[in-house]
Write a structure and sequence with these properties.
Helix content of chain B: 25-40%
Largest sheet of chain B: 10 strands, mixed
Shape of chain A: globular
CATH superfamily of the largest domain in chain A: NAD(P)-binding Rossmann-like Domain
Number of helices of chain B: 14
Number of helices of chain A: 15
Structural class of chain A: alpha/beta
Order of helices and strands of chain A: HHEHEEHEHEHEEHEHEHEHEHHEHHHE
Distance between the termini of chain A: 29 Å
CATH topology of the largest domain in chain A: Rossmann fold
Largest sheet of chain A: 7 strands, parallel
Oligomer: heterodimer
Number of strands of chain A: 13
Strand content of chain B: 15-25%
Largest interface: A-B, 26 and 24 residues
Helix content of chain A: 40-55%
CATH class of the largest domain in chain A: Alpha Beta
Chain lengths: 451, 439
């Protein structure tokens, strides 16, 4: 389904002849889909420790992993620069990347693994590590036809297994609308992982099998897509929304074979009621998705306390109180528990008429960073996703000028879909994503807003 | 788990679901019984995570029913997210339908014949079955059976313009021709139920129901439907003063006390309860709110003369619960005061008040109920604490499910105690039951 008419028109024959720039149709995930539709170039500069296991991962998924650029189109390019420390190493990277980007297929993937600048042993090494940030973000802006470029900044002590779920996510079509992002991967919290390889026992088609996932604001829009996507990936869904949204909520719960919980998360007793439900009905929880959010837009000059307070209460206050309750309760949040909070581009870039909303969504980012070490002590992680322009009922109701502008100001020249946000949450929600903690991942097609 | 033969175990009330009740010809005007029942079932499935489950049985019914809905409950199951292998059947006992369905399911659970089940009912006064004129129907039936063109032509010659007038269901008793309200007015007069007392009960019902919504009591009991999130009959600002201004609509002359305010309006809606054995509930990690202890159904003669005005039976149409409750109490070794909650269906405010008066009346109790001492008064603070039919409305077959689920939730909130349900029904019948809080 697409309500992006320009995208559809631009792919017609006439538009091609007229030279109208094409809005790419992004490859998106379907169950059973292969990790990559074609071969991948997987190589390293220096003694990178990830090239070999990533190559094995690609081969295991049924695709060829090549070490040099040939005639073939490349579905992905993975460059391990974790050992890069000098300008000479950086130059070597350019020598590899220049011919490689010419061969990247539509909806192709460029993934660079780099070292953590803070861990660098010299100024030059730190400079090189940081240089990758600018390099990858620029490549993302140059790539066409739905191809993306992203950077994984990997801690020196992280073993290959620590990056497994992240590499899979960024290579797959699940990351269709995640572009130009920098994600730090550390030593995973919780149980130690197999240091020898990436032989992950998790079924790539059902990476959330056996996990209980709570989704707030699940009755419609992005929340409903999150519930659908997590259920598709094997999670049991606990769908939460306000009692007045019960009709839509029941539909979401039933189509995901989950459970509907009618609960106003802003009430004082809500965290305890939710935790009791999770303990009694599900034996605890593995993944909590704080998606519920409202807008009450008004210029600050005309803002009243009710608009301010209700937005902050739903979008931020409720998350804080539920997270505190999860930290305080014994045994509700399971080992390898994952919290994912839905922030927003408005929280990063600000938005006219949305002081309350933007404050709440920026607040989520601060909250996630503050909680990360505390959840890590429990073997759990907390991260945020920040959607950019996502095609929903809300954006469909925008005036056409605002909507068109919102859609095009990103490297993929289109709005994302609710499922793109959901896929990103699914990746962060996996038990094997414990190396990613306290991060904010934008799902915005590399929007220029707030970048 | 295969239950042992002839074991009697407890039947648990696990929870319930209903859609908000809507005044007739309003929000649900275009919804059929099947639409509402299916939506209610799906809401229940969602709340208890039963998608794809095979339950022991679903039992429900409707009072106003189209002939095409002969298998209403089974059709609702097939349209729901329950496993299609869940059996179902319809029951119909006028306003007792929902509670009778719950009795049927709980009895099978107690006997070990099923481990789980859903019970309740649905009614629409908006989408009522209007039938073809009886004369026309006879001609059409004969036409279908006719074997020759000549015979058919002869039958067609019998068609008359007047036969276009359809048969519309009446809210009246077939044997007396009186409406339920007119019957209730006879009883109100007989027991001297005052207008003030009726208006007080009605106002309390509205206030209690509105307060229950405000404190979230119905969050786990109601699923919005067609944009309606609360019963649209409820008036939170209802008061005795406002109700006193209404003109009586039932009964005649000076003594008439029953108004639209202290009588239930025609309503559309649907309600279901989820029942199961304790073991089934535990296996599914579901709560046990209460146990369905026992039930009794009574019937009275409101037809054959000897009543207060001697034209009708000596008992009031809606007074069967007066007789059912003492029998139920005796069987369970309880007194009327041994309850923490009384859920007496408010068909009319006067019905509730006449019932209470009868239980307090020594002469009536001795003569008619065979009791040396009357059952006595109840603590009115324990009556219909979260509102009842005067405020919520009364989609006939849905009321039993509404009350069972609400009472079980009240008992669960309290954490202990016992509740009595009393529902009067057309045809001079009454269904009553006892629930007990789960340990």
């Amino acid at each position: 389904m697409s309500n992006d008419r320009l995208r559809d028109l631009s792919n017609s024959m006439i538009a091609g002849r007229l030279g109208v720039p094409r809005v790419p149709v992004l490859r998106r995930y379907e169950p059973g889909q292969a990790l990559l539709p074609g071969p991948a170039l997987v190589t390293a500069v220096g003694a990178g420790r990830f090239a070999k296991p990533v190559g094995a991962l690609v081969e295991e998924s049924g695709q060829k992993a090549v070490e040099g650029v040939g005639d073939e189109r490349l579905a992905a390019v993975v460059l391990d620069l974790t050992a890069a420390a000098t300008l000479a190493d950086l130059a070597a990277a350019q020598q590899i990347l220049t011919p490689a980007v010419r061969k990247i297929a539509p909806s192709g993937r460029l993934l660079v693994l780099g070292p953590e600048p803070a861990e660098a042993s010299s100024a030059e090494a730190a400079a090189v590590a940081q240089a990758l940030d600018g390099l990858v973000r620029s490549i993302a802006k140059e790539l066409r036809a739905g191809a993306t470029a992203n950077l994984l900044v990997v801690a020196a002590e992280a073993v290959p297994a620590a990056v497994d779920s992240s590499v899979r996510f960024f290579l797959s079509s699940r990351s269709a609308y995640v572009d130009g992002q920098v994600v730090h991967v550390g030593v995973p919290v919780g149980e130690p992982q197999d240091p020898t390889g990436m032989d992950d026992p998790i079924d790539p088609d059902r990476p959330l099998a056996g996990r209980v996932a709570v989704v707030t604001g699940a009755a419609r829009g992005i929340g409903a897509a999150i519930a659908d996507t997590l259920a598709r990936d094997g999670a049991s869904i606990v769908a939460v929304d306000i009692p007045a949204a019960g009709e839509g909520l029941a539909a979401v719960a039933n189509r995901t074979a989950g459970v509907a919980v009618a609960l106003d998360i802003t009430t004082p007793e809500a965290p305890q009621r939710l935790l009791e439900h999770l303990r009694e009905r599900h034996g605890g929880v593995d993944l909590v998705v704080h998606n519920a959010g409202i807008t009450r837009d008004k210029l600050l000059a005309n803002m009243d306390a009710a608009r301010w307070d209700s937005v902050l209460a739903v979008n931020l206050g409720a998350q804080l109180r539920i997270n505190d309750a999860l930290l305080a309760a014994d045994g509700v949040l399971h080992e390898a528990g994952r919290i994912v909070c839905v922030s927003s581009q408005s929280g990063i870039a600000g938005n006219r008429g949305q002081t309350n909303y933007s404050a709440s969504k920026a607040g989520i980012i601060g909250m996630v960073r503050a909680y990360a070490p505390r959840f890590a002590e429990r073997g759990a992680t907390i991260n945020a996703v920040a959607p950019g322009f996502i095609e929903t009922e809300m954006t469909a109701a925008m005036p056409i000028g605002t909507r068109e502008a919102g859609r095009r100001v990103n490297s993929l020249r289109q709005g994302g879909l609710p499922v793109d946000v959901a896929e990103t949450i699914g990746w962060l929600g996996q038990s094997s994503s414990g190396g990613v903690n306290g991060q904010v991942v934008r799902v915005c097609g590399q929007s220029i807003l707030g970048a | 788990m295969a239950p042992k033969k002839s074991s009697v175990r407890q039947a648990a009330v696990i929870g319930g679901n209903r859609i908000p009740f809507a005044r007739a010809n309003g929000r649900y005007a275009r919804a059929s019984n099947l639409d509402m029942l299916t939506a209610t079932l799906d809401g229940l499935v969602a709340r208890y995570g039963l998608a794809g489950e095979r339950l022991g049985e679903v039992v429900a019914g409707a009072v106003l029913k189209h002939s095409r809905d002969f298998n209403l409950t089974r059709e609702a199951v097939l349209g729901s997210r329950l496993a299609a292998s869940t059996p179902a059947y319809d029951v119909q006992q006028a306003c007792g339908t929902g509670l009778e369905a719950a009795i049927a399911v709980s009895n099978k659970i107690k006997l070990g014949q099923i481990d789980s089940g859903v019970a309740g009912g649905v009614d629409t006064a908006s989408d009522a079955p209007i039938a073809v004129n009886e004369d026309l129907r006879r001609i059409l039936v004969a036409l279908g059976a006719a074997r020759s063109a000549g015979a058919r032509l002869k039958l067609l010659g019998k068609l008359r313009p007047g036969q276009i007038v359809p048969e519309i269901p009446q809210n009246s008793e077939p044997r007396t021709g009186l409406s339920m309200g007119e019957h209730a007015a006879i009883t109100a007069k007989e027991w001297g139920v005052s207008r003030e007392a009726q208006d007080e009960l009605a106002a309390a019902s509205h206030q209690h129901l509105a307060a229950a919504y405000d404190r979230g009591f119905f969050d786990d009991l109601v699923t919005p439907y067609l944009g309606l999130t609360r019963d649209d009959n409820v008036r939170p600002d209802s008061s005795v003063e406002k109700l006193a201004r209404l003109t009586p609509v039932f009964g005649k002359g000076e003594g008439a006390t029953m108004t639209a305010g202290n009588s239930t309006p025609l309503t559309d809606g649907s309600a279901l309860v989820l029942l199961g054995s304790d073991e089934w509930a535990a296996e599914h990690r579901l709560p046990v709110l209460a146990h369905f202890v026992d039930a009794e159904t009574a019937a009275v003669d409101y037809v054959h003369g000897g009543g207060a005005d001697d034209r009708y039976g000596r008992d009031g149409l809606l007074t069967a619960p007066v007789h059912a409750v003492p029998r139920l109490l005796a069987r369970n070794g309880l007194t009327l005061q041994d309850f923490d909650f009384y859920e007496i269906h408010e068909a009319f405010a006067s019905t509730v008040l006449a019932t209470l008066k009868a239980w307090e009346d020594p002469a009536f109790s001795k003569e008619r109920l065979g009791l040396d001492t009357p059952l006595g008064p109840i603590d009115r603070a324990k009556l219909n604490v979260n509102g009842s039919s005067l405020a919520a409305g009364h989609p006939f077959a849905a009321t039993g499910g509404r009350i069972v689920a609400s009472l079980a939730t009240q008992l669960h909130e309290k954490g202990s105690g016992r509740g009595l349900i009393s529902i009067c029904a057309a045809g001079g019948q009454g269904v009553v039951a006892i629930l007990e809080a789960a340990e």
